[in-house]
Write a structure and sequence with these properties.
EC number: 2.1.1.211
Number of helices: 10
Main location: cytoplasm
Radius of gyration: 28 Å
Mean pLDDT: 80
Function: Adenosyl-L-methionine (AdoMet)-dependent tRNA (uracil-O(2)-)-methyltransferase.
Organism: Phainopepla nitens
Strand order of the largest sheet: 1-3-2
Largest sheet: 3 strands, antiparallel
Structural class: alpha+beta
Helix content: 25-40%
Order of helices and strands: EHEEHHHHEHHHEEHH
Strand content: 5-15%
Enzyme class: transferase
Number of strands: 6
């Protein structure tokens, strides 16, 4: 459904067809190779010169396809349109047929238009016919993709939730005295208790939970995003103790060591500001700044 000027890159992973799971048809090939051939076939049917490449990534599925040019002139777009629709219809399986036998592709109405599936929608007067021409119930992705990983939440809201959850974990532990706020005495620093995500959620008010519910992963995602303060393991939330973190490896490549050094003390230390015992690490060992004068 893309425009004639579109190019594409695809890294096939899960075995899916247009209407559900991909069904094997050749036993002489591996499932992966057969599926790769199918994905390449889709590109050919859509009128692309399909190139295959193998990415240098640590994955067993690293074969990709690139379509940079077309096999036909722009004037033949309507003909290729028809070819694509026939191909989609030929891939319909019995599984789909049992879902709705009364719904099918309408080959009597051809607009000849090509619409981008990942960005633009057909004109308003063609919206209804586009669905019947290409695939019943097809919904193109919106022009603006909504970010729902808690990254777009207001900073004040996130800071408030982090502080509330941290106080909940700290107050759940027995209070200790004689803390050393500057040096971080290892014997008295309050690490708090661990609570389940459910217990933490029960503590938060309804308005906060409502905001988090609209995000992917909700409360767990927000806490994991704030990895300086929290550690979430097996559904339980802990206050992160930076004394237990592994020191950076001296065998790291020079580039990675340089990047780590450049990221050192670029943000304020949450524990230095908010924890009743201060930071568990001395200033020179903490990757975060103990005060604005240390910020880089």
């Amino acid at each position: 459904r893309s425009s004639y000027s579109c190019c594409y890159f695809v890294l096939p992973c899960c075995f899916f067809d247009f209407h559900g799971k991909y069904r094997r048809r050749q036993s002489k090939k591996t499932q992966y190779r057969e599926y790769l051939d199918f994905v390449a076939q889709v590109g050919f049917v859509c009128g692309f010169h399909v190139e295959e490449d193998c990415l240098r990534i640590p994955s067993t599925k690293r074969v990709s396809f690139i379509g940079k040019s077309r096999t036909y002139p722009a004037a033949e777009g309507a003909l290729i349109d028809k070819q694509i629709m026939q191909f989609i219809n030929s891939r319909r399986t019995c599984t789909v047929a049992t879902c709705d036998r009364g719904v099918g592709l309408n080959h009597q109405d051809h607009s000849g238009g090509l619409y981008k599936a990942a960005g633009s929608e057909p004109p308003e007067d063609e919206t209804e016919t586009a669905g019947t021409i290409w695939m019943p119930g097809f919904q193109p992705r919106g022009k603006v993709e909504q970010i729902r990983n808690c990254a777009s939440l207001p900073r004040d809201f996130v800071d408030e939730v982090v502080l509330n959850v941290a106080n909940l974990l700290l107050n759940a532990a027995p209070q200790k005295s004689g803390s050393d706020k500057q040096g971080g005495n290892t014997n008295t620093w309050n690490q708090g208790e661990s609570l389940s995500l459910r217990e933490v959620a029960e503590y938060l008010n309804k308005e906060t939970l409502k905001k988090l519910k609209s995000e992917y992963g909700g409360l767990q995602t927000l806490l994991k995003n704030n990895h300086q303060v929290f550690e979430v393991l097996n559904g339980r939330v802990h206050i992160r103790d930076w004394r237990k973190e592994k020191p950076p490896s001296k065998t790291k490549p020079e580039v990675k060591r340089r990047l780590s050094a450049e990221a050192f003390k670029t943000h304020l230390c949450w524990f230095f500001i908010h924890h009743p015992d201060g930071c568990s690490l001395p200033s020179e060992a903490c990757p975060y700044a103990h005060g604005t004068e240390e910020l880089r």
